[in-house]
Amino acid sequence: MKILRIEHIGIAVERLENRSPFWAHVLGIKHASTEIVKHEGVKTDIYDTGSGKVELLKSISDDSTIEKFLNKKGEGIHHVCLQVDDVEQAIIELKENNISIISEKPSIGAEGYKIVFIHPKSTGGVLVELAEKAT
Ligand code: ZN
Q: What is the pLDDT of residues 21-32, one digit of tens each?
């Protein structure tokens, strides 16, 4: 696998409208998109610095992973996402190295990226997302 860059940092928030102004207006980072990712039960608000994004994540479902995260830990960094050239190849290599991944097959995340999550127990406590840009 080839890691291309840090794609984004995912931050769990209770309410987008309370947290967006800091990123958009105080820091002045360009808003890239707002999107509902239904199967993940989240609404995302994405800000693009031009070299890496900030992805605010709000739960829209009682059983989403973001809801569980917020209940357990409160607002804060939820995951770090690295862009890869080929997510299927990455999954093969992770399995060869006995790294715990959350699902065996990539799913489609925000902005159409093909994604897979690596379990924090394999990374030193950080949920890591690998994402391949849609072609
Ligand atoms: Zn993400």
A: 999 999 999 999
On whether the CB atoms of residues 50 and 98 are closer than 8 A, the answer is no
Domain harbouring 90, CATH code: 3.10.180.10
Query: How close is the Cα of 96 to the center of ligand 1, in Å?
Result: 24
What is the Rg, in whole angstroms, of the alpha carbon atoms belonging to the chain?
A: 15
pTM: 0.94
Within 8 A by CB and 6+ apart from 119, the residues are 99, 100, 101, 102, 127
CA of 123 to the centre of ligand 1 (A): 16
Q: How far is the CA of 110 from the centre of ligand 1 (A)?
A: 7
Number of domains the chain contains: 1
